[in-house]
Amino acid sequence: MTTTHATPATVPATASRTWLRRFLALDAVVTGGNGLAYLAASGPLGDLLGVERALLIGLGAFLTVFAAGVGLLAARPQPPAFGVRCVVEANALWAVLSVVALFLWLSPTTVGTVWTLLQGATVAGFAALQYGALRATAGG
């Protein structure tokens, strides 16, 4: 029987990889749930948020596919850095475009404005957490 002992260099990398996978999985669940809600309830949500139903259907389809891809990354024992960077960059872009959309394209209700800002902040938070965990994994 062989016993392996963790070294200081391997413990942080293993823990960082675990956290990275958890942050990706949480992103996939939240994004997938959001996408499915947009698809299943685009009419009522559109009325509540002050956003066109067609826009919610398009966003819902995109978010559902994106979430599936993020979930596949989360399921890997060691998610590839390139894939994670793509997710981080897409999340950062989504967060920025959420705010830009409020000023340039959308005229949502008050609830829609608050929702857009909250989901943008949530996605920015995912990007920051994933980026930090990716850096820690690479540094370990």
Structure write-up:
It is built from five helices and no strands. The chain is mainly α. It has one domain. The protein is elongated and about 45 Å long. The model has no long low-confidence stretch (mean pLDDT 91). Keywords: Membrane, Transmembrane, Transmembrane helix. It comes from Streptomyces pactum. The chain crosses the membrane at residues 23-41, 53-74, 86-106, 112-134.
- Biggest β-sheet: count, sense, barrel? none
Supply Rg: 18 Å
Give the terminus-to-terminus CA distance.
27 Å
**Which of globular, elongated, flat, extended, rod-shaped describes the shape?**
elongated
Structural class: mainly alpha
Whole-number average pLDDT?
91
Query: Number of DSSP strands?
Result: 0
Poorly predicted runs are: none
Percent helix, as a range, is: over 70%
Please tell me the total number of domains. 1
Strand content: under 5%
Number of helices: 5
Protein name: Integral membrane protein
Transmembrane segments: 23-41, 53-74, 86-106, 112-134
Keywords: Membrane, Transmembrane, Transmembrane helix
